[in-house]
Amino acid sequence: MVCGQVTGPPAGPVDGVSALVLASAPEAARAGREFVADWLYDKGYDDVSVEVGRAVASELVTNAYRHAAGAGERITVRVYVSAAGPVLEVWDPSPELPEERPLDLVSTSGRGLAMVGLITGGWGVNPLASGGKSVHALLRAELDPEAAP
To answer: Where is the signal peptide (predicted)?
Structure first.
């Protein structure tokens, strides 16, 4: 099923936006997930939040690479803190909406967005005025009480 929610991300940012522009290639997922993990760590989020952010970034960037952007086309990863919490956005050049398929025990692919829905505060898609779309997820994240401010 299509995500069913063409919505913008939570209102924000209440903190500046950090962005990474990638060329669509197999290594884009790794670069995207490390960028998001480093950002969450630098902002003082706990280890679980960092790993969830890493997993969500991996899924969204992989989807952009595999389904929405041709070789070398631009994929942009953006992260920021909104009033609702940290938001991860992945922009790609395709207007085609992502599909969330139901979870089952036999599929070997196609379940990533359903998993993103389970481990985040929600996800959605928003068309971009410049063309393409932004897929966003509200990360459930906790600050590390031992992290330096």
So the answer is: none
